[in-house]
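Posted in: Protein Modeling Q&A

I'm a second-year student putting together a small comparison for a lab meeting, and my supervisor asked me to include a predicted structure for DegV family protein. I've never done this before, so apologies if this is the wrong subforum. The sequence is pasted below exactly as I got it from our records. If anyone can share the structure token output, I'd also love a short note on what stands out.
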Amino acid sequence: MVRIITDSSSLYTVEEGRDTGIDSVPLSVSIGDCHGRDLQMDMPQFYKRIDEGQIPTSSQPPIGEVLDTYEKYRGEPIINISMADGLSGTYESACSARAMAKNKEDITVFNSRTLCGPHRYMVDQAHRMAGEGREKHEILKWLEEAARNTESFLIPQDFSFLKRGGRLTPVAAAIGSLLKLKPVVKLTEDGRKLDKFGVKRTMTAAVDSIIGHLKKKELGKNHLMFLSHAGAPEDAAAVKRRMAEIFPELEILILELGPAFVTQGGPRCLAIQYINR
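Accepted answer (user: helix_wrangler)
Welcome! Here is the predicted structure, written out as tokens:
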């Protein structure tokens, strides 16, 4: 059977992954004198430290841990479904670990070109296909198609987190100086940067601008939407109600972001993502 490995961009904790039959290797996160792993830190304390002015940082999973995970499955085909290359060093680290592995010929590192909700869906479907006995090339073919049919939008509440992380196109970075406005950024098609999508005065207007774009995509039962938030469940619930009115056949799931992605998007940011089923 094909073994599926991923990182915490999929929002799978180590324990959840283990229970599902997936290996999820978490990113590393630091804030002040606190150093830990993504999805394993106390979130109220993490937000408290941010409120006190401490600036978090994140980095890719330890390469040795990725290597150990690969070598656990010697003699078996492996697909490591990584978060988008360019948004983190995670993909490159996964490739470096592969190059060092004794079973490297059995390992394929797949660049999902996305993160969070759609990334999780790719992992889930790849694992399901593996359980059905599908061959590695079949799973990779499906993953390639899935990666071409997803979009991600982010509405940050504090643009300084994104700007500090350096994952913006120059055009998107230029809107960071706008005050009391809601910038909306969109993941580029190659998944490597966040680009300007629009600037609105309110959260409602920002969401409506995304809805206007999504209407052209005719979202429905053949799509899955994820609303991923950073400590803003009320905002996510309100957007879900609005999306459900506009797209009644669309399944919409709410997820909570871990510290690695709060580090990039900032507290109370909201990601709106969809993927073809």
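A couple of things worth pointing out for your meeting: DSSP finds eleven helices and 13 strands in the chain. Residues 148-274 form a domain with the Hypothetical Protein Tm841; Chain: A;domain 3 fold (CATH 3.30.1180.10).
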